[in-house]
Structure formats: C-alpha cells, structure tokens
Amino acid sequence: MTDTGNTITASHGREHRVDIVIAGGGIAGLWLLNRLSALGYSALLFEAGRLGGEQTLASQGMIHGGLKYALGGALTGASEAIAAMPERWRACLRGEGEVDLSGLPPLSHYYYLYAADNALGSLTSFFASRGLRGRIERVQERDYPQAFADGFSGRLYRLNDFVLDTAALVARLAQPVRERIFQHSVEHAECSDEGVRLDLDGRSLVCTSLIVAAGTGSERLCTALGIDQVPMQRRPLHQVVVRHDYPHPIYAHCLTGIKTPEPRLTITSHPTGRTQRNRWLWYLGGRLATSGVDRTQADQIAHARDELKVCIPWVDLDKAEFSTLRVDRAEPAQHRLLKPDNAYAKRVGQVLVCWPTKLSLAPDLGDRVLAQLPPPAYSDSVDIDLPRPPPATPPWV
Ligand SMILES: Cc1cc2nc3c(=O)[nH]c(=O)nc-3n(C[C@H](O)[C@H](O)[C@H](O)COP(=O)(O)OP(=O)(O)OC[C@H]3O[C@@H](n4cnc5c(N)ncnc54)[C@H](O)[C@@H]3O)c2cc1C
Q1: Which ligand 1 atom sits nearest the alpha carbon of residue 357?
Q2: Which atom of ligand 1 is found nearest the CA of 187?
Q3: Which residue owns the Cα nearest ligand 1 atom 18?
Q4: Pocket of ligand 1 (CB under 6 A)
Q5: Nearest CA, atom 49, ligand 1
Q6: Which of these CATH numbers, 3.30.9, 3.30.200, 1.10.3470, 3.40.1010, describes 107-163+234-329?
C-alpha cells in the first residue's frame, strides 16, 4: 500500500474502503462523482467502456425547461418538474453552481421553436400567456439567427433553453475528478453489514454505498445484484445525422403541421471539426426519431429528406449525406411506457439505482441521491492500477 497525500494506492490482496462506488460514466455517474467529491465523500467511478459511452454522447445536448412537453397547449407535470433546470445549469456554467462547469461554452445560448405561417393555431395564444412569461419569447425578424434570416417565413420563438457539446461536457466533468475514474465493468458485488464488496481483478474494494448509474447496463447489473424492485424500460429512438454544406447552425424545434404534442423535428447542430462550408452537421430527433423506430434505415432517411423539405424548405439539401443512429433511452419502468417526469434514484439496501431520465435533470438526480446517502466516513481516495477510460467522442465521429 502506498500513501501519497490523501490518496492510497490499492494493491492486490488488500482490502480498501471508500464511501461510494459509482458504476457508469455517463452524465449520471459523472455528475454524482463531482457532487460527492466536492462534499468530501471518498468516491470512485468505474466505467465499462468510454466515458459518456451510450445515451449521454448520443443525446442532443439540450438543457431544457420542458416547454416541449406542453405542446398540447397546457403546462403539465412533466413540463413543470424540469422548469428550473436550465437556471441551475447556467449557474454551473458561471462557476457558481453545485458542479463547476466554468469554461465550458454552450454550442448555443438559446434554443428556438418555429412553425411556418399560421401553422400554430391556438398555441400562439398559449405561448403569449402570462404563465409562460420568461420561458418563451417571440423573435422579431431583425433578430433572427442567420439560418432563419436566410428565407424562413412564419413565427419564431426563443426558449430559455441552451445546447451543450456533450463530448466537451463529459470531458469537463471528468477533469476535476479524473484521479477517481477507472475503466472497469462492475459485474457483481456482495452486500453485507460491512458494506458492498467488489472484486476488481483480485483487488478488493468495500464501499458503504454502491450507485448503479449504468444507463441500459443498470438492468443487467441489478439482476446480478439480486435487485428486482426497480424494473427498467427502454424507449427507443431512430435519430438522423445530416452532413451538408450549409454554413449556419440550427437549434430549433419545428412545429409546422404537428398532429401530436411533440415537435415534428428537433434539430441540433454539431461541429464536424472541418472549416467553412462543412462546418456543421445536423442531428435530428423529435417525432421523426420516435416514429422512426419501426422504419428501416433507408425508409428513415427517405422520410427525413421529406420532412426537411417541409420544415426547412429554404435550404437545398439535395447533395446532403444522411445516416441514422438507433439508441435506447433507459428509464425506470412506467405505466404504458410513458416518459418519467423526474430523475429517479431508489435505495435498495446499500445500493442506489438511478436514471436521470434526461440530461437536463442531472441536478435533480444529484438532489435525490444526496438525500438518501449517509454522511461521508472515509477521507482518503484510492488509486487503483487500472486503466483510465478513453476520452469521449460523439457517435457520428
Ligand atoms: C438520442 C437521444 C437524445 C437525447 N437528447 C436529450 C437532450 O437533448 N436533452 C436531455 O435533457 N436529455 C436527452 N436525452 C436523454 C439523456 O441523454 C439521458 O437521460 C442521459 O444521457 C442518461 O445518462 P446516463 O448516465 O444514465 O446513461 P449513459 O449515458 O448511457 O451512461 C451509462 C454508462 O454506463 C456504462 N456502463 C454500462 N454498464 C456498466 C457496468 N456494468 N459497469 C460500469 N459501467 C457500465 C456505459 O458504458 C455508459 O457509459 C437523449 C437521449 C437520447 C438517447
């Protein structure tokens, strides 16, 4: 055993104790590791693959206040549960929040919502209502972002939401806690009165609490731990990636002609690393992605081309290249596969199982987990001779 300051190096055949072990290095695990470390917990995180590995890097990076859940024309439990999140994240970006994200520039400071001429019907008066003051604001033509100034005709609104580059977010979250992150899958653990014992290739680690934050992997890990009280659901998406030479980014929900209370297209733009004309790719979600789960890739691409002709008719995409990405959202099981409104954290003995259910809800997840943890008991961190997970890259790279 080597003691370097307050870090102890774990070696084979010895038992080491920490307050918390986190399984999973997506937004849930990384957010919690930052919060717990700042509060003095001795906490370690194990990621089976790459940091941000599944949903987090595949997400659209929108930190939103839930207005897209109110497109039926009324505020709902879902829209209100998440309303405070953008401000909590903005405080973090200023270095004044519960997690320090200072120095992380948003991809876009705002998110927009639009529909072609007269296509909004009664939503027009709903968006102008007092209850939504401060959350949505009509944009005048002279203030249009460049992509809309190029030929859009209709109503454009600015939401109090913003967009993050998820790979940069994952890297920023890992930065202050990198000594506590290791690449290793958590496959099994033994719970007893002494704590939760993990065997990491011959190194024995005992923690007071094990946090299962492994996204879709939490289902398998819960089964291995004998936990059957927290069933998981998967809600699949079939996202579309568009590579084109249009030089301006778009961050907007298209509501033109919607028939269900869901954006027709949810568009985010992401840097390709190239310069000038191929600078941005568009990543498309919304109704296109939820309804597209039963389409083949070819059908989904054909459908996306048609949707873009309706939603962004002023941009010529004939030469654009399309690809698709299938990814499941992992959540606690709900009646009829409905979307959960809040983050979720449930304690079963010494194990806490959690799903943020939205990137935006990471602060809510932090609150819920902290409320269920005993105070820290160990001050040392443990260094283990295991590799570090490779850096995060978005799925389209
Ligand atoms: C296409 C898509 C778009 C989305 N867009 C948005 C959005 O714009 N805004 C928003 O708020 N939300 C969005 N979401 C939801 C959001 O992305 C997810 O709720 C969130 O990223 C889930 O994070 P997580 O940490 O729980 O899971 P993940 O990001 O999936 O991370 C889980 C990690 O656990 C690891 N792991 C698995 N098993 C083990 C194991 N046994 N041991 C150790 N590690 C393990 C995996 O490798 C993975 O890295 C989107 C989701 C999808 C799928």
Answers
A1: 19
A2: 41
A3: 358
A4: 23-29, 46-49, 52-56, 58-62, 185-186, 213-215, 217, 221, 237, 239, 285, 327, 329, 355-360
A5: 53
A6: 3.30.9
Tokens of 108: 């876009």
Task: Give the span between the Cα atoms of 43 and 54, in whole angstroms.
Answer: 22
Angle between helices 27-38 and 362-370 (to 10 degrees): 50
Q: Note the CATH number of domain 2-56+168-231+335-384.
A: 3.50.50.60
Residue nearest to atom 38 of ligand 1 (CA): 217
List, for residues 280-328, the tens digit of each pLDDT value.
999 999 999 999 999 999 999 999 999 999 999 999 999 999 999 999 9
Within the chain, where are the H helices? 27-38, 55-58, 77-81, 85-93, 123-127, 146-149, 166-174, 217-224, 287-291, 297-311, 362-370
pLDDT tens readout for residues 83-99: 999 999 999 999 999 99
Q: Give one DSSP letter per residue of 214-258, joined into a string.
A: -TTHHHHHHHHTT--SS-EEEEEEEEEEEE----S---EEE-TT-
Q: Please tell me if the domain spanning 2-56+168-231+335-384 has the same topology as the one spanning 107-163+234-329.
A: no
Whole-angstrom CA distances from 328 to 231, 276, 360, 389 are: 15, 33, 17, 22
What residue segments make up the domains of the chain, in order of their start? 2-56+168-231+335-384, 107-163+234-329
Residue nearest to atom 3 of ligand 1 (CA): 59
Q: For tokens 């990076």, name the residue.
A: 61
Q: Kindly give the number of the ligand 1 atom that is closest to the alpha carbon of 221.
A: 41
Cα-only R_g, the chain: 22
Which atom of ligand 1 has the smallest separation from the CA of 213?
26
The residue written with tokens 């443990």 in the block is: 382
Please compute, for residue 182, the number of CA atoms within 13 A of its CA located in the half-sphere on the CB side. 21
